[in-house]
Amino acid sequence: MNKVFIIAEAGVNHNGRFDLALKLCDAAKEAGVDAVKFQTWRTEKIVTKSAAKAAYQVENTGAEQSQFEMLKALELSYPEFVQIRDYCNKIGIQFLATPDTEEDMDFLLGLDIPVLKIGSGEVTNIPFLRAIGRRHQKVILSTGMSMLSDVEKAYNTLMEFGAKEVALLHCTTNYPCPYNEVNLQAMQTMKAAFKCQVGYSDHTMGIEVPIAAVAMGAEIIEKHFTLDRTMEGPDHLASLEPKELKQMVESIRNIEQALGDGIKRPNASEKMNSEVVLKRIIAKQPIKKGDILGEDNLALLRSSNGIPGKYWDLVAGKTATRDYKIDDPIQI
């Protein structure tokens, strides 16, 4: 299989601090991911001042702030994102960010990002999807909170308006997401429906589910991470800490190797072992020349010499052309 593209989702776990954003880049690089991703927005352009917080945001950060106030405190500026991009280039990791408006998108495209990663909240934002398509870029679209029909409309809109390529990430928009709400098989449903690249954006605790997703065919994995899960903020609780992120990456790379190419055949090590492990046709009692070979005088035993057992039916019923002692390999 192709190498899984692993995105470390820094998201808003920098808590609006530029210095923490750079530390997240360092942690992502150390973990061995392919890209570190942030979220780029101007709060006034995406939420009203009276908008309520999501339930998980209230649970994780309290109800004192409005959603507007929370997002404003987590916002990084365009100049800061330019510096973050430059820092990613310096340390050798791909910088990505999710835009929430056309203005954000054009700013990010000006930073030469290779793909537009779009969040689940935009699946039904048809005007925005049309604008994304018109940029003729590769797109990765998360699909939380969506019916298959919603995904179909979003996918078709992006392609119709010119997207170069669209990959779909199965996602459950809950932070953290309980295991019984993951529904990983929906990823395979989208693969069958749209014949496109699919992956999984994970909000569960731990690393088991993204690893399972890779075993089920995910080609892209996105996972939230933080420097410290006990920090204040809406997404820290459902995020991996750096050591866990590194463990997830190593596990995914192991699974990639284990999946192989799907061709059933013995590998080089097995071929060596088969010489002494697979059973061969052996005389289980003395055999005289002219005797009929069969179950009465033959056995299948491990031996370094002799005819492999898979040829039993070619040997049984033949006439012995020489004498054999017990444990002699049969020859014809």
What would you say this structure looks like, in words?
With 332 residues, this protein is of the alpha/beta class. It has two domains: 5-259, Aldolase class I (TIM Barrel, Alpha-Beta Barrel); 268-315, no CATH class. It contains 13 helices and ten strands. An eight-stranded parallel sheet has the order 3-2-1-8-7-6-5-4. A two-stranded antiparallel ribbon has the order 9-10. Helix 10 links the parallel strand 7 and strand 8 (220-224). Helix 10 packs parallel to helix 11 (242-259). The model has no long low-confidence stretch (mean pLDDT 95).
The profile of the biggest β sheet is: 8 strands, parallel
What count of helical segments does DSSP give? 13
Average per-residue pLDDT, rounded, comes to 95
Poorly predicted ranges? none
Write a brief structural summary.
GO terms for molecular function: N-acylneuraminate-9-phosphate synthase activity. Residues 280-332 form the AFP-like domain. This protein is α/β, with parallel strands linked by helices and 332 residues long.
Looking at this protein, list some descriptive labels.
single chain, alpha/beta, TIM Barrel, 2 domains, 8-stranded parallel beta sheet, two-stranded antiparallel ribbon, about 40% helix
Write the layout of secondary structure elements.
Blueprint: E1 5-11, H1 18-31, E2 35-40, H2 43-46, H3 55-61, H4 67-74, H5 78-91, E3 94-99, H6 102-109, E4 116-118, H7 126-134, E5 138-142, H8 148-160, E6 165-171, H9 185-194, E7 198-202, H10 208-215, E8 220-224, H11 242-259, H12 268-277, E9 279-283, E10 298-302, H13 312-315
Parallel strand pairs: 1-2, 1-8, 2-3, 4-5, 5-6, 6-7, 7-8
Antiparallel strand pairs: 9-10
